[in-house]
Structure formats: C-alpha cells, structure tokens
Amino acid sequence: MRHDRLLGLDIGGSKTHAILADAGTDDGGTSVSRYLAECSVGSANIASVGEREAAAALDDLAARLGIADPAGHGIHTVFAGAAGADTPAGRERFTGLLSRRFPGARIHVDHDTRIILAADGLTAGTVLISGTGSAAWARSHDGREARAGGWGYLLGDEGSGYAVTRSAVRNALGESDHGLPAGPLTARLLAQTGAAEPADLLDLFYRRPERRYWAGLAGTVFALAASDAAGAAIAEDAARHLAGLALTVNRRLGVLAKGVPAKGMPVLLAGGMLVNQPALAAKVRELLAASGLTDVRVLDRAPAWGAVELACHLAVTPLQPPVQAPA
What are the pLDDT digits (tens) for 166-203? Predict the structure, then answer.
C-alpha cells in the first residue's frame, strides 16, 4: 500500500475546518484514507475576509496541524470546498493562495456544496445550505448541475443566520417607528446585544458589521418562534426562502417536472442553521415534501470529510498531460 498525505478544507464565510489524512490505494487498487488530525480556524475565504486575513488563517491551521514549513509540509493533495468559488476566476484566486502556502502540492478548489454531497457518499442530489449565508446546488445522475442563491449578504442570503437576525433588527426598528413597546423578540435582542433601545441597536448594526456576530444571534428568533408572532413570521419566511432555493435547482434540472415526486435525488440540509435549528429543518422538510422532494436528510458528518474523500480520489488519479497545440 502506498500513502500520500492530503488536506481536506471546508472554507466558509465564518470559519475554516481542516482535516489532515493519509490517502492512497490498497492492494486491490481501492482508494482509502486514514485520519491524522483536524482543526478549525478563522475564515480563509478571500471573498469574505480579504487575502491577507485568509492567508493568516491558512498559516494558523498549518501551524496547528504541524505542516507549517512551506518547504517540508509533506502535503501531496489539497482539496478545498470554498463558499464563493463558483467561477473560474474565484477558484483561481483560492488556488493561488493555497499554492503559495503549500508549494508543490496538487491543489483543487471547488464550491463548498460539492464537498457536502461527497461527505454523505453521494454523487447526485441537492445540497441546501443555511449558515452565515445560504445557497442551494444540485447535481443530476447524468452530471448536469444547477445552483441558486449564494449572492452574499448585500444582495441576498435570505434564510441565512445573518438574514434572520437582520429581520429581527428590522422588526425592532419598525416597532420603534410606530411608537409600539418592544415585543418579546426585540426585548431579547436588546438584552443580548447590550443595546438600551432600538436606536442603539441600529447604531450597533452598522458599527459592528461582522456577519458572524449577527448570524450567531439567529437562535434567539427560533427560541421565541413558538410563542412570539414576530419570531414565528421571521422563521416561517426563512424556511420558505430556503425551500424555494432547493426547488429552484431541481426544477432547472427537470427533477420536478409535472409535479412527479423526485426519485433518487436526496436533499442534504447543511450549515449551522439547518443542522442546529430542528424546527427550521422540519419546516423546510415539510415544504419540500409538499412539492415532491421527500428524501430530505440533515447532514450528520462534517463537510470537510467530503473534501477528504474528494482529495483521496484526486491523489490516486494520474495527472493528465497538457494538450499540445497542432504544429
């Protein structure tokens, strides 16, 4: 058996999860991997934090995993699933950053939804993510792909943790504008942020723009959704937006043509919101089932494991020689 050291990365907008493993083939030629170590650090997402901070995050994870020496890191293959790596230009930026950190390694960058599908051992299906941001991606059995959402917080990300808290802040400001007393949701949000009144909350929202901070407060909405009308409305809206993303990509692939229930196309729910808020996941599952998507699962394995599996296959795949232009 031969072994190559590989690195699987899940690069999100708020954090980066890295798994270090050995990979190779057994005597029968089957790809295998062996866990070595893992860590989580700050985001290495260039689109979210900029190249300098992303490079610092990679330095941090390399130090924690004992592969900090650029000349002796020992990494054969890196597979990174990165939020925002949807275009060739975006993937090239990530690839360049990783190549500088791990010179000589075989680098492959793809969008983060692909590694989630691989983490569940699937080659076809739908991935629906709600974390700091939100997006859906689907791959059919014949290899066609479709994506929806993932526009970022300035243009979209409805149904994400950030968007849910933003709606709660808007609700607080609306109550204030109409001269209404603070409702239960507003009162809880003020207490959690230390703001004395909605005007202070508005100031804080712009003074502290970190999306991860605001996304982290989204649980307040779901904690009150069963007893507070404002919280219930925001939670319902989030579920409908998320279900809409999954339905959009499946309709584009023809999976839901003429309302026929989809077969062999599971939907994986991933990201902190859908994994940690069971009421949200249940409502999304209900909405999808009503439209024919009945095989809906919450991902129970870290997405970085999908990056490990894809890196393992890549490590044992021979490099293709460059195509020579005709003389």
Answer: 999 999 999 999 999 999 999 999 999 999 999 999 99
- Contact by Cβ (8 Å): 52, 78: no
DSSP secondary structure letters along 199-258? HHHHHHHHHS--HHHHHTTTHHHHHHTTT-HHHHHHHHHHHHHHHHHHHHHHHHTTTTGG
β-bridge partners, 25: 2, 31
H/E element, 90: helix 88-101
* Mean local confidence (pLDDT), 45-62: 90
Count of CA atoms in the C-beta half-sphere (13 A) of 137:
24
Please tell me the pTM assigned to this model.
0.81
Residues paired with residue 35 on neighbouring β-strands, in sequence order: 21
The tokens for 45 are: 């997402």
Return the beta strands (E) in the chain as ranges.
Answer: 2-11, 15-25, 31-42, 77-82, 106-111, 125-130, 134-139, 145-149, 267-270, 296-298
- Residue 19 to residue 38: CA distance in whole angstroms: 4
- Residue 55 tokens read as 């490079």
pLDDT tens digit sequence for 220-241: 999 999 999 999 999 999 999 9
**DSSP-derived secondary structure letter, 325:** P
Q: Which two tokens mark 255?
A: 């999976």
60 within 8 A of 42, measured Cβ to Cβ: yes
How far, CA to CA in Å, does 135 sit from each of 130, 262, 320? 7, 20, 32
Residue 42: phi and psi, rounded to 5, are: -65, 175
